[in-house]
Design a protein that fits this description.
With 208 residues, the chain is α+β, with helices and mostly antiparallel strands. The chain has a single domain, classed as Alpha-Beta Plaits (2-Layer Sandwich). Helices cover 17% and strands 22% of the residues. The protein has six helices and twelve strands. Strands 10-1-12-11 form a four-stranded mixed beta sheet. The protein has a two-stranded antiparallel ribbon with strand order 2-5. β3 and β4 form a beta hairpin. The radius of gyration is 17 Å and the shape is globular.
Length: 208
């Protein structure tokens, strides 16, 4: 049976520290304005601001990255096969060398903001590369997104965001393996998926 790699995020443990975002950015040597992992504030209009009226306030966090859907909308619209799903792992990949910059994948994806596009040659605050040497070089006129740190998976390592999570809110594994931690978590806890009505069956689950 093929694997279906996925992520389980415990929203009760996430403290909005953004360490996962920084771990992702460093590990993948992301260009200046690119973020594959974002933390959204569920509360007020500004980051880390509560909603409601005193003393009845509410505040929580919702981490967002590519959902690596079981039935991805992006792969169906890519005219050159640059966006494709690895059937052995379930991970949705982006091949920069094939990408022609049409941005159809961005338009088709129902999860706003999980992909970015390099309009110009990627620029960096530092004058040297950071992260893993096996990360693909970023290119002009290409779409990008979370890869579940494919280069780390090849070494049987977890994604950088999971390893870096200070609150131990992120968990990663094979959703098709009933003995895996992620499978046990969604079997024992209430959870939600983002926009399940889209029929994409996201591989990122949020414990509530």
């Amino acid at each position: 049976m093929f694997k279906r790699y996925g992520m389980v995020i415990d929203t009760k443990r996430c403290v909005g520290c953004h360490t996962c975002s920084m771990a992702c950015k460093m590990e993948n040597n992301l260009p200046n304005d690119n973020w594959w992992c974002r933390i959204h504030t569920v509360g007020g209009q500004n980051m880390d601001s509560p909603g409601g009226s005193w003393p009845n306030l509410f505040l929580s966090y919702l981490p967002i990255n590519c959902q690596h859907c079981e039935n991805p909308a992006c792969t169906k619209v890519c005219p050159v096969g640059a966006t494709y799903k690895d059937e052995e792992t379930g991970v949705v990949h982006q091949d920069y060398d094939k990408c022609i910059g049409c941005r159809m994948c961005i338009a088709a994806c129902p999860y706003t903001g999980v992909r970015s596009f390099n309009w110009e040659e990627p620029k960096y605050y530092l004058d040297f590369a950071v992260g893993d040497a096996n990360v693909s070089a970023h290119q002009k006129h290409t779409a990008e997104k979370c890869t579940f740190c494919t280069h780390r998976l090849a070494r049987s390592e977890e994604p950088a965001c999971v390893v870096g999570c200070l609150a131990i809110a992120r968990h990663f594994g094979d959703l098709n393996d009933p003995t895996s931690e992620v499978a046990k978590l969604i079997a024992s806890r209430a959870y939600k998926q983002i926009k399940p009505e889209e029929g994409t069956n996201p591989s990122v689950y949020y414990l509530v």
